[in-house]
Amino acid sequence: MRPALVLLQSHCLLCVFGGMCVPIVMGSQPPALPWHVSCPARCVCQIKPWFSPDSVYHEAPTVDCNDLLLTNLPSPIPLDTHTLHLQSNLLSVLDTAVLHGLPNLTDLDLSQNRFSHVRTITDRFSLPSLLSLHLEENHLTHLPEASFASLPALQELFLSHNYLHSIAPGAFVGLDSLFRLHINNNRLTTVNPQWFKALPRLEVLMLGGNPVESLPERGFIALKSLRSLVLGGMGLKGLAEKALEGLDSLESLSFYDNLLTKVPTQALRRVPGLKFLDLNKNRIKLIGTGDFQDMVHLKELGLNNMEELVSIDRAALQNLPELTKLEITNNPRLSYIHPQAFLKLSRLESLMLNSNSLSALHQHIMLSLPNLQEVSLHSNPLRCDCLFHWAAKEVSHPRLEKDTEADAQTPRVVRFIQPQATLCSEPPELRARRVREVSSGEMSALCLPMIPASSLPSFVGVREGGKLVLHCRALADPQPELYWVTPSGLKLHPEPMHASKASSTPLPCKSRRTSEEFNLTSEANTPRQQNEDNIPCQLLKHYRVLPEGTLEISKISAREAGMYTCVAENAIGADTRSVNVGVHNREKRRNRGAAANLKKFQLLRADARFEVREIREHYAILSWQSGHNLPSTRLSWQAMFSKAHSPTYTTRILAGTQSFNLTHLQAGTYYRVCMHLGISEGTKHASRRLRESRKPQCVSFRTKDAPEPQPSLQLNPQLTSTAVTLLLLAIILLLAGQGWDSETGEGTGKNHNTSHHDIRGYKALIVNQKAKGSDDPQPKQNDKLLLHRNC
Q1: Bias regions of kind Basic and acidic residues — which residues (predicted)?
Q2: What's the CA gap between 262 and 349, in Å, rounded?
């Protein structure tokens, strides 16, 4: 929620319980009426509308003496005065005897004056009718015991924007009827549970703006009637599990503008009736699985203005049956929402996601929200591809609802908020087109993985022995697999999805250190083979990759500094993003760590040996051995022709890859292939000298010649049939001759030779027929003569 919207919602809630919608209601009331009394000089006396803290309307005789630079109370003040405004004067003391003579005084405004001691206002005389006291923007520094005991009917007390640094444990004794207490924007550093024991009916408490870094456990347990609690701008870094225990009636809670780094899930579960939750402008980096789960009464949730929020993970919001409005806006690094981030949000009607870094909103999200009425996606770098088919102009709704009675399907329309500003950023041919005006046919059927640049910085510094956490996310279709490559070239794959969220189990001893070959069939490459090596346990005991892609390294050492690369890969392509990690101790500075990392990179270049491992007619296998991660590496190759210029082709090599199968080459051709080593683009800590020294390593080779085609005999079907017939006739004649020889012994030798000669002639004819039916060259002249003679 935006701050103004949060404030409005808080005011509306307080209107129900504390009467803070006065300006709204007064706008529809009659104007102020004249009050014919003896009015103090320069003051204005009128009959004005007024609402009590419990929202009861009154026509209140009002004396308005604001902005008159008064140093004393004006006189004479009419005895029937109900409301006395003394705002923005120079009052430092107060003649309480004059106020004691005003039996109907209900509302006293002393804000923006110079009071430094509350006793100068509340001592000596009782004001039994006073319901509301404004002391904002004075010079109060301390509240002693029983500071307001003379105001037994008080229902509203405003002490914000003073200099209060201490409050006595019993400062509010006697305020049994107090509904509303503002002590925000002071200098309190702790919250004392003793303060609230005297406030059994308190419904609204504003504590924000005090430099309180932590709240005590059960600090509000005495506030059984509290409905609204504002803890904004306090510097809270975390919340104890029992910090909110006992707030069984609490409905509205704000943590706006604190230093929370994660959702205080355990503490929120102690507030069963919570309806409105504001976590805007905190340092939360990701909304994890189960962070908002089973908050069955929650109606509105704000996760806006978070500079470091990058991801909303699977099942982050689950089983929130009353949630109707969800605002996740103005988060400049938020680039990933898991397709199953929102589960069992059956009543969600409004989803605000504008002004983030989202490239898409997955169709599964839309399908999981059966009552969604409107969505806001403008001011995002939207990628109009297969993930956005649900938003195409010819699609009325991403799902179809079944009518249980008529068994009919009724389309429902999800309205785009500011559709004119909801534009495509990618691909280039659809850039600046309105999403609602793009047809599904113009969008691609498959989506390449893309790791948003905003998800990972180019450099991260961490103290030696500390914990490193790097978040990497990617959306694509098919859903990509993510893994990390360490500076030493190890591939770290995520834990199984069923692993416990709170588990701290390191990676298993058998990890993957792979050498992959990529077949160049298109711009996107796919892995062909993997070889696994066993990695010693001691090298992996501090590493952990969560199922969503977060890399955690506990107790990091200086030898683990260097380039870490996240790889997102699916069946059609891959994307990588690298981050340079510097490890330093208390004596070393970040720049020294960066210089050491760059020195390591220079050694890395010498370690990477580029060579040709195998050459064939149409492919060549290239390999390089390196004990280090090689991010931003690419290959370029060119055929070396003597008479014509050939184009140069390039492809990017995924981190952790140590071989490449270069295919679609021409036989008998010279090629020159170069490997360009580089550090991650945009690295700020790379010196100019280092960048200029990145010369490619090149090799040249010649592919093998294609073997000459061997002549083959192909039979014409018609000639083949003729040859078979003649062959059968020859066999019959042979058998007949043998039979005749057996009967007449005289002509045996002669007839035998004649039959053998005929068979040779037929064989030669068959060979000639085969040659004629083939594409091979015709028989030589001497072969033809031999054939004629045999025939």
Answers
A1: 772-791
A2: 26
Count how many domains the chain has. 3
Instruction: Give the residue from 187, 215, 248 where a domain finishes.
Output: 187
Confidence at residue 120, expressed as pLDDT on a 0 to 100 scale: 86
Tell which phi-psi region holds residue 643, choosing left (phi > 0), alpha (psi between -120 and 50) or beta. Answer: alpha
Q: How confident is the model at residue 715 (pLDDT cuts 50, 70, 90)?
A: low
Nearest to 766 by CA among 739, 791, 789: 791
- Write the CB contacts of 617 (distance below 8 Å, at least 6 apart in sequence): 665, 667, 668, 703, 704, 705, 706
With residue 277 as reference, give the H or E element that holds it: strand 276-278
Two tokens at 617? 């007619």
Inter-helix orientation angle 748-773/717-743, to 10°: 180
Q: φ and ψ at 787, to 5 degrees?
A: -60, -45
Domain termination site, one of 154, 187, 220? 187
pLDDT at 356 over 60: yes
Work out the pLDDT band at 587, boundaries 50, 70, 90.
low
What are the two backbone dihedrals, phi and then psi, of residue 672, each rounded to the nearest 5 degrees? -120, 125
CA–CA dist 189, 182 (Å, integer)? 16
The β-bridge partners of 649 are: 637
Q: Which residue has the tokens 């279709």?
A: 477
Q: How far apart are CA 331 and CA 59, in angstroms?
A: 46
What string of H, E and C letters represents the secondary structure of 111-171? CCCCCCCCHHHHCCCCCCCCCEEECCCCCCCEECCCCCCCCCCCCEEECCCCCCCEECCCC
Do 764 and 654 reside in the same domain of the chain? no
Whichever domain contains 579, its CATH number is 2.60.40.10
* Domain span holding position 745: 717-790
Helices H / strands E in the chain, number of each = 11, 48
- Per the document, the length of the chain is 791
- Among 571, 577, 566, residue whose Cα is nearest residue 482: 566
Residues 6 or more apart from 409 whose CB is under 8 A from it?
400, 401, 402, 403
Return phi, psi of residue 487, to 5°: -60, -25
How many angstroms separate the Cα of 427 from the Cα of each of 328, 361, 423, 433, 443? 25, 16, 11, 10, 9
**Closest listed residue to residue 375, CA positions, set 446, 327, 432, 336:** 327
Q: Are 60 and 149 in the same domain?
A: yes
- The alpha carbon of residue 388 and the mean position of all alpha carbons in its chain are separated, in whole angstroms, by 17
**Within this chain, do residues 36 and 84 fall inside the same structural domain, yes or no?**
yes
Is 10 domain-assigned? Answer: no
Cα(691)–Cα(599) distance, rounded to whole angstroms?
A: 12
DSSP one-letter string for 358-407 = -S---HHHHHT-TT--EEE--SS-EE-SGGGGGGSTT-S-SSEEE-TTT-
Which tens digit of pLDDT belongs to each residue from 104-134? 999 999 999 999 999 888 877 788 899 999 9
Q: Which two tokens stand for residue 464?
A: 């030696």
Of 68-72, 264-268, 603-607, give the lowest mean pLDDT range.
603-607
Could you tell me where the DSSP H helices lie in 236-392? 265-268, 363-367
Per DSSP, what are the bridge partners of residue 614?
Answer: 621
Q: How confident is the model at residue 489, as a pLDDT?
A: 81
Q: Which residues pair with 652 in a beta bridge?
A: 634
Q: Which residues contact 233 (CB under 8 A, 6 or more apart)?
A: 185, 208, 209, 256, 257, 258
Angle formed by the axes of helices 781-790 and 748-773, nearest 10°: 140
Domain membership of residue 321 (yes or no) is: no
